[in-house]
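re: ur question from yesterday

yeah so i grabbed the chain u mentioned. its 365 aa long if i counted rite. heres the sequnce exactly as i have it in my notes:
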Amino acid sequence: MDFILALVLTALRRTAVTFTHNWPFLLTSILIAAALKLFLDADGASAFLRRFRGAGVAAATAVAVTTPLCSCGTTAVVLGMMAGSMPLGPIVAFMVASPLSSPSQLFYSAGLFGWPFALAYFGATILLGLAGGAVANVLEARGWLKGQIRFAATASPSEAGCGCRAPDAPVAAPAPLLSEVGCGCGAPLAPALAPTPLPAGLGCGCAAPAAPAPVAAPVAARPFVEMLQRYLRLVASVAGRLVPLFAGFAFVGYFLNGIIPAAWIQGLFGEGRAYGVPLAATLGLPLYVSSEASMPLVRALVESGMSRGAIAAFLVAGAGTSVGAIAGALTIARRRVVGLVIAVLWLGAILVGWGMDAFAAFGLI
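ran it thru and got these structure tokens back, copy pasting raw so excuse formatting
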């Protein structure tokens, strides 16, 4: 019992130290994530991709790594791309790169692993998106991906039933004009069950002086105030999710450090273990939780000897094959497309991991 209590206290102390060192990066990540959620949405992203469809895979990858979309949002964007009859290359590129990184995750990972690792990981995400899109283009040209889309290209993201946004309400019929009922002034007529007769002697009333309107308080700043309030609510929402995940999984990682001998971690995932990277990529498929949770968890394992390459492989393979990502993919595509995404992520995770270890050997990360 004393041993467990000592482990808990040690893990709590090291979690507090980690939070103290990383809170500026964590705060920056929260502020960026809230701003992107405020100004970017799935409909806007899919509209951009349809507008610049000529850029294809490159545009899809760029949007994927700059938008903080959940699995539901990613599904909505892909449905919007399908509505624009886009080929599978950009779609697969987006499905590969979108779960892996975003501007907020760039700062989040920089606080935990340092800027060299964060930038290398962000660059690897871009390369994987481009590679996945290129492979999909080749396979689609050869007919291997024919008939692998579940939906016809008719729905817009807001009509997709994703849940991120309710369908638009039907547009009401335009109100009739006064000129249509004999007034002739052309001003809109307020809806009414039956026309109200005009008082005797008033005539049409178009030339009658209007009653002075009551003086209203200035409202110029109201849109800004409302936007600021919405932004602050988003900041609170993101922080309420991110901070507990950071602290909780950092604690779990440090607690595991006290239970699992460091020699085991070094033997499986340490520097110079070529099999450690494929093993980490494979374990990332079923064990990954989310970027916000998994990054502080594996950061704690770095102190037990886990290599940067093994960390990158775990994060790449796990992020794109999480339950949410695969469930979203299966709702819009069939097994060949989903299998292609998983294969690109798993093989890409291994290559990225080996590359990270090579950079680490030369002191670059």
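noticed a couple things. The CA atoms of residues 245 and 293 lie 5 Å apart. also The chain has a mean pLDDT of 76.
anyway ttyl
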